[in-house]
Amino acid sequence: MGMWYWWTLLGMALVTYIPRAFPLTFLEGKELPPVVSGVLRNIPYAVLGALIFPAILYVQQDNLLFGLIGAAVAFSLAFLFSNVMIVVLGTIGVLAVYSLIF
Amino acid sequence: MNKNSFLSGLKAGVSIAIGYFPVALTFGLLAKTTGLSIWEATAMSIFVYAGAAQYMSLTLISKGVDPILIVLNTFVVNIRHFLMTAALNEKMQSEKRWVKGIYAFGITDESFSVLATQKESKIATPFAFGVAVIAYSSWVIFTAVGHVIGANLPAFLQAAMSIALYAMFVGLLVPSMRGNRKVVMLALVAAVINGFFYWTGLLSTGWSILVATLVSSILIEIIYAKRGKNLPKGA
């Protein structure tokens, strides 16, 4: 790659940093209207719903069953234990065994 | 800096570090096959630090796409972080702007999810640094490692670990859903809308997540506000 690569990198770094930093620094100490902060408080749970579905089904693009099993195991473990590490390692473990067998 | 909350931040970020491991390893490997040197590949992880955008840039670079379009695409993919950091700001301890400007660099889908689902009403700044540091280290280090070893994990492990970040999202969401119908509705509505955009192909992933999140958050807020007016307090 030539010099253009480093300029591209600089551009990518800037446009990635701005959406991260602007709200956190600009909104510091500002009191938002209750309606707006109500909506903002909802965002984490809505984001999680959108991040999980449907992408979890397609972690192995050619194998929908793999994603389905992974999703089922992750949700079951999450209902049983409120510990994120157990959910992550348990799901990896079950899928590792599954991939070894099939 | 409060050492204890920095350490609990590191601990809370371990599942992100595990999840980034296979993704960063593969990125390093793909960067190598795209023709990037180890410095070029690792520098991208150091300075850009955005999984989806970095993967896409490799495809665009290999196709010889105009650098300006690569930068624009990166912006579009990451525009959803405006929404996440605005939401996160409500939950973060008040802090000097330049300090927030530093840990803001470490906000990704994953670190946002970990921070925003903490039970404490306010999150201490060192905790955010802890989460950011461990996740970022994993991303940068395993990018370099992937480029150096130029190979992937054994196939079965690579496949199994591809679920890690999603399992983490599930592990963060489900405990909050318990006994909280509003949380269930928020996640469900956003998932359905996102699925709609995915299968119809109407929006690309970055926009789709943004729109699904915003529509769900506003819609559910309106429904609950209306109910709040009709029902006595506490019902």
Automatic annotation (TrEMBL), chain A:
Name of one Pfam family that matches: AzlD
Transmembrane feature ranges: 6-27, 39-59, 65-98
Alphabetized UniProt keyword annotations: Membrane, Transmembrane, Transmembrane helix
Entries under InterPro entries matching the protein: Brnchd-chn_aa_trnsp_AzlD
Taxonomy, superkingdom: Bacteria
Species this chain originates from: Psychrobacillus psychrotolerans
Keyword Membrane: yes
Protein name, UniProt field: Branched-chain amino acid transport protein
UniProtKB/TrEMBL annotation, chain B:
Protein name: 4-azaleucine resistance probable transporter AzlC
GO biological process: L-valine transmembrane transport
GO cellular component, one term: plasma membrane
Keywords: Cell membrane, Membrane, Transmembrane, Transmembrane helix, Transport
Source taxon at top rank: Bacteria
Family: Belongs to the AzlC family.
Pfam families, A to Z: AzlC
Main location: membrane
Keyword hit for Membrane: yes
Membrane topology: Multi-pass membrane protein
